[in-house]
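Quick start: read one record
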Amino acid sequence: MAFEAQIAWRYLFSRKRVSAINIVSGVSAAAVTVVTAAMICVLSVMNGFGSVVERMFSRFNPQLEVVASQAKTFSVSDPAIRSLYQNPDIEIVSQVLEQTALIRYKDKQTPARLMGVDSLFAAATEIDSIITDGSFLLIDEGGFERSVLGRGLASTIGVGAHFIEPVYIYAPKRTGRVNLMRPDKSFKREYTFIAGTFAVNQVQYDDQLIIASLPLVRRLYDYDSLTVSSLHIRLRDPASLSKTKKALRSSLGDAYRVLDRYEQQEDFFHILRVEKLLTALLLVFILLIASFNIISSLTMLIIDKREGIRTLSHLGASIRQIRRIFLYEGWLISILGAVLGVIFGVTICLLQQHFGFVKLGSGEDYILSAYPVVVDWMDIVFVGAVVLLLGFVAAYIPVRRLKIEQ
């Protein structure tokens, strides 16, 4: 260890002639410790919420989704699309056709997103795990059309699983002219019985989506048996997702987009990332204010050690070496605060993760009973780097003006 660092270490823990310097140094380290721990805890909680949302989407969204780059629909007869069915990395390819429709139950009606799915949809997703009432069933033993819809949408129109009366679905005709005398003739109608309700705990699904059989949606919109709006893909080995996505993008070309779960919900996860970034910047600003204590501590220490500075100068130490001593002193305060802050922060997060001391609430209105926490080592590296950088800047400010008095 360089002699500058050894002297700085001794200055940090030795008693000063003015006891206030010890107090200010302790307050500086404590402030850095508290803010560092707070940064790790807050960022870990935000990771936890992101993880919870990701799990919610993963129960409904497929591992990979193929959509057309320009059009709303495409044909599965395309040779590039047909090659998906022979891909050894792909276990299931489910066809989906999604459109907007009007649904009506008795005297209540509301617009909704109508999703037509084939018999492989349940295997390609985990929708069975989010069914809250009834079951996932599209066509019953008697050949009647069945459907499942979001819990919020079911509440809006006042329907539930296994209700006797059907739900009617209306859609405008894609071909032909509109009859202004009988505009009702410009709509096609299908009906379906409700087999169950589901809850993703996201408004875009729970309050807007109804899932019916793919043939019903094709009849309603006059599409042929090869038209889809997307393909939902399940892989044989989830670990090969990145490699398979890259290979599919290369084989399908620019005409199609291959989306993983993050890209399927790109807007939502982008908002989460922006919120995390803004939160981190706010905490960095608080850390900057806490680092001002280091400036005060070093300024007082320099005044207290004037005689020691002259002695070191007489012994041959250069002004640069003496400045480095106090620079190390300020940095040691930051390092001490960073280490203790990381230890406390990670400990608090692990305790919250296992015991859930800090509660969110209880009852049906809360998805979770306690704040979720996921500790990411990248966050720890980020926090540590920021603390050390600000600590260096805070130490450099008073040190750069240090002069040797003869």
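The CA atoms of residues 160 and 248 lie 40 Å apart.
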